Amino acid sequence: RLKHILRPPRRAPKLIAADAATMMSRRVAIAALSAAGCFGSSAGAEVAANPVRKVVNLLQAMQKKVEAEGEKEKALYEKFMCYCKSGTSDLSTSISAAEDKIPQVNSAIEAAEGKLAQTKE
């Protein structure tokens, strides 16, 4: 029994030769396919597979995005500056109008309090 376990299985010599021929034909086919893939590929496929190109494309996309955000920020800044210039003058005119109206409102309140005092008596 021990001899049977240690002994490699028997194969016919023809099968071994056939296996070697099959393996050789597979190697040749794989080499041919890989050579066709390397030499027959277009430049676009190489560019798409190139990791450096991927990084460059990513950086270009980021640059476009940052430029678009910069344009939006510039437009918002211009609106804010316009508001600051016109808003200050609008605010100062409304403050002066309110300050002019304060004595009128105070006199109206005093008159209303006087009428209220007369109606209570």
Write up this protein:
- There is one protein chain.
- The protein has helices at 2-6, 13-39, 43-49, 51-120.
- The protein is mainly α.
- The mean pLDDT is 76.
- The protein is built from four helices and no strands.
Which secondary structure elements does this structure contain, and how are they paired or packed?
Layout: H1 2-6, H2 13-39, H3 43-49, H4 51-120
Strand content: under 5%
Q: Would you tell me the structural class of the helices and strands?
A: mainly alpha
Total of helices:
4
List the secondary-structure elements in sequence, H or E: HHHH
Question: Mean pLDDT, rounded to whole units?
Answer: 76
Q: Give the distance, in angstroms, between the N- and C-terminal Cα atoms.
A: 133 Å
Biggest pleated-sheet summary: none
What proportion of the residues is helical, as a percent range?
A: over 70%
Total E-strand runs: 0
Low-confidence stretches: none
Coarse shape: rod-shaped
Radius of gyration: 46 Å
Highlighted features:
121 residues; mainly alpha; rod-shaped
Short description:
The chain is built from four helices and no strands. It is an all-alpha fold and 121 residues long.
